[in-house]
Amino acid sequence: MQRRAQRVERDQRAKRRNRALVCAAAVPVMLVAAGCSSDSGSGDSTDKAAKAAASASASPSPTVQAAAYGKLPEPCKVLSKKTLEDLVPKGKSGKEGKSDDISTRGSCSWNSLDNNGVKGSQFRWLNVSMLRFESDVTRGPADKLAQEHFEKQVQEAQAVEGAKSVKTEPVTGTGDQATAVHYDLKKKEGTFKQQTVVARVENVVVTLDYYGAGLAGDKTPSGKDMLKDAEKAAKEAVGAVSEANGEGGKAGGAPSASASKPASKSPSKGASDGPSKGASASPSKKPASKS
Questions:
Q1: Residue 196 near residue 157 (C-beta atoms within 8 A)
Q2: Could you tell me how many helices (H) and strands (E) the chain has, helices first?
Q3: Which residues of 141-164 are buried (b: 16+ CB within 10 A; e: fewer)?
Q4: CA 64 to chain centre
Q5: Where are the alpha helices (DSSP H) in 130-194?
Q6: Taking the alpha carbons of 102, 206, 209, 78 in that order, is the dihedral positive or negative?
Q7: pTM, 2 dp
């Protein structure tokens, strides 16, 4: 009886040890499961952050087409000696306008006074100005900015105070687009014939002003002839811009669709980016440089 009781007690102790071992083994399994569950959540968060960063980096930054032309020619060298002799025969070397950055803005002017004594005099004034635009992410591509300035320059020329018989017409074969504005200005010295040709080639705008008058009783020059000379000089100046940037045939190329349409004749107030292009009050006073 005693031995039987001892066997029963041993069996019970063995069962208790087995239960303890099973419980002890279950604890690390639960911990491992809990740990895996925790790691899984952290991994999902990391993956989401990585995907968000990848998506952000994949979004393209705002871009704009680069400007075609990166420099300007020397202003006082855009016209040939022959052209200057035709337009300003008594003119000496040109006077270059001031510029903070000659790669983006430049101008040059010439005066000519052919004094014939008691028979009167012939006065001529010529100015060429150039403005180059750079592309800007917020403002737009350079050629678009140049076109906007081109239109403002034409509108400004059409709105000169005191101008009579204002006429506007397209000019072909000069850059991407070109427009001529011509009119008369009557002053006490005589009637001045004013010609303004505005042209755009890529991201550069060229504005050429040419006017003249017969003084002290001399005859008034032919506006038609002066316009022809102004258009020829403007084409030459545009060609100089193209050549300075490594293109020789741009000036004489076929104009774009916009070139066949003259700018609106309704000037916008305050639209001009530069000074007024009116002739000086007196032929003895040179107009302000249009740099």
A1: yes
A2: 4, 7
A3: bbbbbbbbbbbbbbbbbbbbeebe
A4: 11
A5: 142-158
A6: positive
A7: 0.67
φ/ψ of residue 212, rounded to 5: -160, 170
Q: Reduce the DSSP state of residue 277 to 3 states and report it.
A: coil
CA 30 vs CA 27, 37, 38: distances in Å: 5, 11, 12
Amino acid at 190: G
Exposed, middle or buried: residue 247 (CB in 10 Å: 0-12, 13-18, 19+)?
middle
Are the CB atoms for 128 and 78 separated by under 8 Å? yes
| Residues whose CB falls within 8 Å of the CB of residue 7, separated by 6 or more in sequence, listed in order | none
CA distance 121 to 178: 32
Calculate ∠ Cα 278-282-284, nearest 5°. Answer: 120
The values of phi and psi at residue 203, to 5°, are -105, 25
Q: pLDDT truncated to tens, each residue of the chain (291 aa)? A: 555 555 556 666 666 666 655 455 544 444 444 454 444 455 566 666 666 666 555 556 678 899 999 999 999 999 999 999 999 999 888 999 999 999 999 999 999 999 988 889 999 999 999 999 999 999 999 999 999 999 999 999 999 999 999 999 999 999 999 999 999 999 888 899 999 999 999 999 999 999 999 999 899 999 999 999 999 999 999 999 999 999 754 443 333 333 334 444 433 333 333 333 433 333 333 443 343
3-state helix, strand, coil in the chain (%, to 5): 40, 25, 35
Q: What's the longest Cα–Cα distance across the chain? A: 163
**Gap between the Cα atoms of 252 and 83, Å rounded:** 17
